[in-house]
Amino acid sequence: MIENGVVLPMLYLPPIAYFVELNKHKPHILIEREEHFPKQTYRNRANICSPDGVLTLIVPVIKGSKNHTKIKDVKISYDFNWQRLHWLSLQACYRRSAYFEYYEDDFAGFYENKETFLFDYNEQLMQLLLKLTKIKTPLTYTETYEPKYLALTDLRTAINPKEPTHFEQKPYFQVFEEQNGFLKNLSIVDLLFNQGPQAGNYLV
């Protein structure tokens, strides 16, 4: 069992606050994979910066993936082409950013290949994001669901789109800052596409 570490959910293109916590607690990272799927969380949605402000991208899941389905068993729905919508949105929002073209090929495949399970999809994205942010840490996964962890900082419900973030974030240049002002705690891809290899400096 990991001690003096953190337990985190597996999220889709997680917000910057998630990576700040992950970086702070490395290498003692425990990822929750036995929880029941909670709706309306970052587990299947991400916020990016558009000309009109925050744009939320949602990965649809197959109906029946309610609160009684374990997160590792939730299947992605392909009833409509959400991958094309997400990729077009990322291109439209970040084509003018300094580093989108630098990373474009790394992400393109995630919007072409059809992964069955949400957890597996997010996990593969997570491994890419750890590489691009230069965070070197192993990820350990839960084998049972524990309501509480006494020896770990439990952040499974703390990073939530319904709750305002309280962490202090250093501002960085965003593509549509003139229209929107600086938008806090967007997806980590906003930081990557705007700051490139320097993104890790904003995660301390």
Keywords:
204 residues, alpha/beta, 4-stranded parallel beta sheet, two-stranded antiparallel sheet, 29% helix, globular
Cα distance spanning the termini: 25 Å
Biggest sheet character? 4 strands, parallel
The portion of residues forming beta strands comes to: 5-15%
Mean pLDDT rating: 93
Report the principal-axis shape.
globular
Radius of gyration: 16 Å
Uncertain residue segments: none
Could you give the count of β-strands? Answer: 6
Strand order of the largest sheet: 5-2-1-6
Number of helices, counting only DSSP H or I runs of 4 residues or more: 6
SSE order, one letter for each helix or strand: EHEEEHHHEEHH
Estimated helix fraction: 25-40%
Break the fold down into its secondary structure elements and pairings.
Layout: E1 5-9, H1 16-25, E2 29-32, E3 45-50, E4 53-58, H2 82-94, H3 100-108, H4 118-133, E5 140-141, E6 152-154, H5 177-180, H6 188-195
Parallel strand pairs: 1-2, 1-6, 2-5
Antiparallel strand pairs: 3-4
